[in-house]
Amino acid sequence: MEIIRCEELMKTYGNNSAAVHAVDGVNLSFEQGTFTAITGKSGSGKSTLLHLLSGLDRPTSGKVIYQENNLFQYNDNQLSVLRRRRFGFVFQAYNLVRELTAQENILLPVMLDNRKPDEEYLKRLTDMLGIEDRLNHLPGAMSGGQQQRVCIARALANKPAILFADEPTGNLDGKTGREVLTLMRTISTELGITMILVTHDLGVAEQADRIIRLEDGKVAEDSGEGASL
Ligand code: ADP
Ligand code: ADP
């Protein structure tokens, strides 16, 4: 079952002779529960595509259809509510609140949404991520890999339909990065969460179900059989 797709997605910066087509007419469909890596050289449009798919940024033209609706028909407030409720985000930088413990950081999105935490779900999540004994630590007292696992727990705390990750292993050494990826994969499979991640690291991308390679804002390769429009 399809969960999200984009149609003729285009993002152009600048104009006329100085125009850069960061994303140039991309059509992609993503199946529910799958794990996709978007890869390509620096400047190929990976971040821009991820920002458009996740509604962090608006395209110059084209659509992103999530549950039958074009994301860009919503105003900024509606879009930010949809992102908060349905999407999770993990970035290269950890962005944890330094004054709060791991546990408090993880609970933040639940609190901000005035929801009651699902203790059982959160316990399962922190166990799967292997951070159950780090929950009372401040970010400064944790390794990079541990901090990123806390970020993943926080991104999943609201039970998002889709987790978007932009170079989630970018600040980690190769081994730690692969471990974090393996955990994300396991969680995607066990909890049925769709994950779309950007990485320039082929070792990381190889762990995905599907690899999409961008070149100059266009899809140059897509291992997803028949998944492309
Ligand atoms: P990647 O993530 O693959 O490194 P990006 O999506 O960051 O690629 O960038 C794609 C292209 O768009 C690059 O040429 C980049 O310089 C350009 N670009 C990205 N964001 C902006 C922006 N805000 N203003 C102008 N050009 C941008
Ligand atoms: P990444 O490491 O994810 O590829 P970049 O370093 O390409 O990120 O870009 C970081 C941020 O700067 C992004 O939000 C991107 O949109 C913006 N950006 C990238 N290239 C340019 C540019 N040429 N001019 C202005 N902003 C840019």
Main traits of this protein?
229 residues; alpha/beta; 6-stranded mixed sheet; 4-stranded antiparallel sheet; 7 helices; binds adenosine-5'-diphosphate
Provide the structure class. alpha/beta
Runs in which pLDDT lies below 50 for 5 or more consecutive residues are none
Largest sheet, if any? 6 strands, mixed
Mean pLDDT: 94
As an assembly, this protein is: single chain
Our estimate of the beta-strand percent is 25-35%
Q: Could you estimate the helical fraction of the residues in percent?
A: 25-40%
Number of helices: 7
Strand order of the largest sheet: 6-7-8-3-9-10
Distance between the termini: 14 Å
For the secondary structure, the number of strands is 10
From the alpha carbons, calculate the radius of gyration and give it in angstroms.
17 Å
Overall 3D form: globular
Order of helices and strands: EEEHEEHEHHHEHEHEE
Which ligands are bound?
A: adenosine-5'-diphosphate
Keywords: ATP-binding, Nucleotide-binding
Protein name: ABC transporter ATP-binding protein
How would you describe this structure to a colleague?
With 229 residues, the protein is α/β, with parallel strands linked by helices. It contains seven helices and ten strands. Helix 6 links the parallel strand 7 and strand 8. The mean pLDDT is 94. Bound molecules: adenosine-5'-diphosphate (ADP) (2 copies). The site of one adenosine-5'-diphosphate has 3 residues, from loops.
Write a brief caption for the model.
This protein has 229 residues and is α/β, with parallel strands linked by helices. The protein has helices spanning 46-53, 76-86, 102-112, 119-128, 144-156, 174-191, 202-205; strands spanning 2-13, 20-31, 35-39, 61-66, 69-70, 87-90, 162-166, 194-198, 210-215, 218-222. The strands form 2 sheets. The chain has a 6-stranded mixed sheet with strand order 6-7-8-3-9-10, with helices on both faces. A 4-stranded antiparallel sheet has the order 2-1-4-5, with helices on one face.
